[in-house]
Each structure stands twice: as C-alpha cells, then as structure tokens.
Amino acid sequence: MELRTLRYFLAVCEHGTMSRAAEALHVTQPALSRQIAALERELGTPLLERRSRSVTPTEKGLYLRRRAQEIVGLADQTTSDLARGEDIVEGDVFIGAGESEGLRVIARHVRAFREKYPDVRFHLHSGNAPDLIERLEHGVDDFSVLMSYPDVDRYAHLRLSPTDAWGVLMRDDDPLVARDTASPADLLDAPLIVPERHAKGGGLTGLLATWFGDRAGEATIATTYNLAYNGALLAREGVGRMLSFDGLTTVGPGTGLEFRLLFPPLVSVIDLAWKRDVPLGDAARRFLELVRAGNL
Questions:
Q1: Sign, Cα dihedral of 152, 154, 160, 161
Q2: Helix axes 3-15, 18-25, angle to 10 degrees
Q3: Can 3-81 and 165-267 be said to share one CATH topology?
Q4: Confidence (pLDDT) at 159
C-alpha cells in the first residue's frame, strides 16, 4: 500500500462520491477509480459499497479507514519533524488522556510551552485506558496520561504530582447527601454506575474492588461508562450512584447533583507515559523536558 493510495481512499470516504473526491484531489475520476480498484485487488476484499450516486465503506473499508488515518497521520507527523530547521521549534505534539482533574497540570504545561514556542500545536485525544494504550503502541500519540494503570512500568513514565480522589456522584435528593463521606457500607443499598475498566462479569475489579474489600461482591452494578459526562447523565436520571474522580462534574445548586468523597480515602496516581526506546520528535522531546522541570 502506498501513502498516496491511502490518501485517495480516505478522500473517497470523506467526500462520499468518486467525483467529489477526485475534484478535491485534483485528479480525474477514472484515475481515482482505478487506484481504488487496484487497492481492493491488492487487499483481496471490497472496500467500498458502490451505489448510483454515492459510495460508503464496507466493514473492511471502515477498518482500513481507521488504520489509514493512523498511518497517514504518523507519516505527516514524521515529515513535519524532519523538515523543520534546527533553530525553529514547530510541529505537533499528540497526547492521549483519560478524564482526570490531573490533566490541569498538563494544560498548564501546554500553555507555558506555547508561550515559548507558539508554532507548536497540541492535539488531545480523550479515551479510556485500552484506547490510549493502543494509540500509544501504534505511534499515533506521543504521550498518554494514565490513571493508576497497572502495567505502566512497560513504558517510560513520569509520575505527576497530583492524584485523583475518588468519590460518589448522586442526585441531590439522595439520602447519602446528608453524610460528609461515603463508606463501602453506604454504597450497598443502591445500584452503582462505575467506570468500565473497573467492572468485569457483573462485578467490581481493580482499585474499586480492593476498596470495597470483602463486601465487593455485594455491590450492584447498574451500568458502566467510559466518559464522565455520560455517566453523570445516568446519575442525574436516577439510574444509580456514580463512582468517579472528584472535579469531573459540576455539582451543587441548580445541577441536581451532589458529590461526596469516599472514606477510607481512595486515590489514583497519574502518570505521563511514552514508549521506551522510541525517539520523540523535537517538539515532543522539548515538551517532556518542560514537564520534567516543572514536576520537580
């Protein structure tokens, strides 16, 4: 597969017709059609479902589109890194991160870095740990911000100074609002909404299972979530109480929601991770130096 052909395929997926894609690429429609047909022959599978006035990716085409975006993006990033003059710092830094109040630390470093190097652009991708690790492994992101990731030692990493405190998000009419904190016993009388990485087979896993201790099996999981915003919607509608990090959701008067910290306290450490023995681009390397200096 050539990069040019992958760019052609991505253009067809984006524009939805061969004619519009050909126009955007400044090639003839027959030439573009031949390139896509040759790609399908090379891969041995149809990539597009052709209709009279439009084309859409097949299931295999959707897979290729995702991979092609990663490949083309990585190639463009590499070209940009190598093409810069030595006395000019510009380019792109790609960071994957879970939802965490600790991202404020990274945000402050991004602001400070761009004040010094305004030609550097940052790209933030939000996701859960499996998504972030896949992007890191495939070179799509330079860094990942991970919370209490159990295999973080597989990567070079820098422990950031803040931690994320766990608590419970609930409706403001929940009887638990009257308490200052929430213990394991307090959370067994109502369904729970928990992060998907902490639930398996209908039960709790990881840090949450450890925190509940012997009573973990008594917890009722109503739903799981991977984005705090969506989890908070479920909590607001009374589906259950949501276990999450402090500071991710607005609470208090007018929101219909309240938050209480867990007791005994439960915290997650935060690491900035990158692949070992893989050289970073100039902008990413300089950004890491700034984060290290500010994290002392």
A1: positive
A2: 130
A3: no
A4: 92
